[in-house]
C-alpha cells in the first residue's frame, strides 16, 4: 500500500500520543486498523492489550471485521508468525473493541463493590427510564405540595405554560440531563447557581459584557457594510450630493456608534436609530435605482435596530434582575438534588442503571488508585475513533485510562454533528493546543488527502469553506491544515452546480396545472425529479473502472437537513416521474402495525368493553372478520355499544350460523387468554399468543417481514424487562405500552431496498458514506433557532440562563445570563450547521448539485454583504446565503441564459421548472442509440397523432372536475386529470422560528377544525376551556408548542366570544370541513362554454356551516390571505363571493337548506366580513 506521508506518520510514529485530524474521505479507519496491525506484528502486542473505543456498536463490529481481514492477509505473507496471528484472530471477539458504554459496563461489573452496585444490574431502556423518572417527579412534587413549599410552587408556576406542572418537570428534566454530561454534575450546578448571588463588582469587564459587545460589534460591522454598499450604488447611479451627503453621514454615524459601544456600553444602549440615520433624500434617483439604494440603507438601519435591542437596561438593572432570580435558581437546584435522590433510589430498588450512570460510576471507580492501576495494566494502547464527538464525561474517563504516551485519537472537528448528544468539538481543539505545548510525547497529524472526490469538486469545496468556515462559525479556521488535497489525479471536468428555483414562474400558466398547485418544497422536488431524469443515461466517470459509464439511479443520493419529514413528498412526486427511491424512515416502535396489533389484543384480553379496540382486534389477522361481517352483527342487534352487539348476536335466533360460530370461537379464545392472564406472566402470555395464533406468520409475510418478526421478539424482551421491576401484571404492561407510544420511542428504519434506485437520506445518516452524484436540497431553509426561545436555557460556561418572569406584575425580562446564552446558542447552532454543510458537500465523488428556492434572485444577490467576514456569515439565515456569499466574487446580479455566475469550479443557475422540461425534451430528442430505430410508418403515425384536431374544440377546454376555488378564475381553467383542491394542506408545520401571516392563519384554522365545541357549550369560562383544549392538542402532538407561541390566542377567544361564535356554540347542527360534489352544466359556469352540454363535477370543502333558527344556515369560510388596505380587501372579497355562491348552491342542493348569512373570516387579520 502506498501511504501518503501523513498516513505513514499516523501508522508508524511511536512513543507519542497521536491526534489524527482526518478530513473527509481521507481513510481514517484504514489508518487506525493498520496501526493496530503494525503494533501487533512489530511489538507482539496481543489484541486484548488494546482498548479501542468506537462511537457505535456497528462501528465496533466493522472495526473487528477489518482487523480480522488484515490479520488473514498478513498470514499469507512470508516471515510472519502464523500461529501468533491465528491466536489473535481467535481472541478478536473478546477484544476490548467497543463503545465507551460497553467498556464502562465491564469495569462496573468487575469493581461493583467500590460503587455499591448489584453486579447483576441491567441497563434500562429509555421508556422504562422515563416511567421511573415520572414516578420520581411525582414523589418530588407530592412532597413539595404536602409541605406547601411556596418557593417551589411559585417557581413552578413561573416557568410553566398555563401553570402546567408538566412544563416545569420538563425544564427540571432538561437541566438534570445537561448536568449529567459534566464529570461533577452537582458541583457544577451549585457553582452556576451561586453566580446569581454574586455582587458583580466588575460587571463591565465580565465575560457577559464581552459576549454582548462582540455581538453588537458584529451587527454594527454588518450595518457599515450595507451602508457602504448603498453609497457605492448611489455613486454608480450618479446620485447628487444631497443623497451622498446623507449616506456619508450614515457611515460616520455608524463608526462613531461603534466607538461609543466599545467605550461606553451604557450610553450606547440609550441611542435610537434616528440619532444616526437622518431622513432619506432621493438625490435625483428614481424607480429601481432609488429603491435599490433605499433598500440597502433600510437593511443597515434594521441591523442597527437589532444591535440596539440586544441590551436594553443598565448595569444596575442587570444585577437587580440576577439577584431577583437567585431564590428561583436555589429552588431549582434543590429540586434537582432531591429528584436525583428519588430517582436513584427507584433505580437501585429495580437493580437497573442508565447509560449515563455507567459513565459516572466508571469514572468514580477510576478515582480509586488501586482499581485504576489494575485497569491501566490491562492496556498497552488506547485508541479512540470519532474523537470529535466525545463529551466531557467520556473525556474524563479516557484521561483516566491512558498512560504517558499511549493514546491514539482520530476524528475531524469539521464533521462534529452530534451536538444533540452533547458532543463537544472543543475537546478535540483543546487537545491540539495542549499537544503543541509538549511535542516530545505528543503529535498532531493532519491527514487531508481525499481519495473520494474528483479534483474540481475538492477545489470548489476548499474555495467555499475557506471563506465561510471560521472559529466563530464552525469552531475552526479552514486553513492549510484543514484544506482537502485531491488524492485522485484524473482530469475530470465537473463543476459544483447551484440551482436556484424560481417558484413564482415555476409552473406553466394554466390554472389547474399540477405544477402551479405545488408548494415551494414540491416545486423543488419536481425540479429535482426532472433533473434526475435528465441525468440518467448520461456519461459519468467511474474511478474504480477507470472509464466512463452511464449514470444509473443508484448513483444518485439526495440529502436534506430533515429527510424524515420530506420522504412522503419525495416518493409521491418521484413516482409520477417513474423514479425509484430508497429511503430509511424511522418508525416509532410502539406505533408499528405488529406492535399495535399485539397491544390491542392484550387490551381486549384485559378489558372486552372497549369498542374501538374490539373492532380493531376483530379485523386483525388473529380473527379476520370482514367489514360485511361486522356490519351484519351490528345491524342484527342494534345495540348502542359493539361489545353489547357481540353478546346479543350469539344469543339471537335466525342469524347467520357460520358467523355466529365465528364470534363464539373468538369469545372463547379471548376468555381463555383472559383467564390465563390471572396466573401467567406477561412474557409467557405473549409467547402463547405468538405460538397459538397465526399472527407471527402473517407479519412475516408482509413487506419487511423479518423486521416485523424481530420487533415482535423485541416486545418479549421488553415484557421481561418490565416484569423485572414491576408487579402490576397485564394492566400495568398495557399502560407501559401506552406511555411508550406517547414518548415516541424510536423503532427501526424501513428501507425500500432496490439495486437501482435513488437514495434519499438526512445529512446525519450520510456521514461516512459516498455517492457518485449528490444533490443537497432545501438550501434555502432557514436555520432553526427555536432553542433560543426557551424560558430557561443551558450553557456549559454560562450555566443556567433564565428569564425573570414576574407573575404579579405580569412582565418577563431576560437576565444577562439569558441574553448571553441566546448569543452563544445562536453561534453554536450556526457552527453545527456549518459542519453539517461540510459533511453534505464531501459525500460526492463525481458530481455535486445544490438546490434552493429563490423568490427573488436579484434581491437575494443585491442584499448579500459586499465583504465576506465571520460576522456576515454569523448573521446569515440559511445554507443558501452562505453558499452565495462564498461563490459570488462581486455580489452583483448578472444573468445570461439562466446562468448568473460561472467559473472553473462553480456554475449558478436561476431556473424555472418549465426550462428544465424544455431541456429534458430536447435531450431526449437529441439522444442517439444504435438499438433504437423508428421506421417511416411509425414517424408518420406520430405526426398524424400530433396534428389531429378535435371537432368540438370548445369541449376540450372543459375539465371533468374542478375545485370551487378555481372557478373564480374560470378563464384560466383547462383540462386536467386532477381535482383542483379548494386549498392546500397547512404548511405551518415547518422548521423555522418565524411564521408568516398565512402560516399563523393556518394554525388558527386548524384549531377551529379540531376544537371540541360541545365542551365550549358546557363551560362557564370560555377562555379557560380553550386554553385547556389547546394544551391537550400540544400534549397529543396535534400541535407544537412553538406553533401556539407564534399565534395570538386572543383571535380564538374573540371569535367564539363574537356574535357568530356564540351562535355557533349554541347551534345543534354543526358541520366542519364538509366535503361536497356538485354536478353543474358548463354553460352555467362560464359564457365561453355557453354552447356546451358538458357537465363539470365541482368539488370543494366547506370550512364551517351551522344551523340557526328556522333551519337556516350560517356559512363561514376561513382565509389566510393578507391585504394592506381596504381596496385590496374589496378585491379579495369580490373573488371570494363567487366561491361562496357555489358553497351556498351546494348547501341548498345537497342539504335542502337556505344560507341566511355567509362570512369570510380573515385569519391573519382577525376580521370577519359578510359576503
UniProtKB/TrEMBL annotation:
Gene3D superfamilies: 3.90.320.10, P-loop containing nucleotide triphosphate hydrolases
InterPro entries the record matches: AddA, DNA_helicase_UvrD-like_C, DNA_helicase_UvrD/REP, P-loop_NTPase, PDDEXK-like_dom_sf, PDDEXK_AddAB-type, Restrct_endonuc-II-like, UvrD-like_ATP-bd
EC number(s) recorded for this UniProt protein: 5.6.2.4
Ranges for domain UvrD-like helicase C-terminal: 482-768
Record keywords, A-Z: ATP-binding, DNA damage, DNA repair, DNA-binding, Exonuclease, Helicase, Hydrolase, Isomerase, Nuclease, Nucleotide-binding
Alphabetical list of SUPFAM superfamilies matching this protein: P-loop containing nucleoside triphosphate hydrolases, Restriction endonuclease-like
GO biological process: double-strand break repair; recombinational repair
Catalytic reaction equation(s): Couples ATP hydrolysis with the unwinding of duplex DNA by translocating in the 3'-5' direction; ATP + H2O = ADP + phosphate + H(+)
Residues binding ATP, per UniProt: 22-29
GO MF assignments: 3'-5' DNA helicase activity; ATP binding; ATP hydrolysis activity; DNA binding; exonuclease activity
Domain UvrD-like helicase ATP-binding: 1-454
Signal peptide: none
Gene Ontology cellular component annotations, sorted alphabetically: cytosol; DNA helicase complex
NCBIfam families the record matches: addA_Gpos
Protein name according to UniProt: DNA 3'-5' helicase
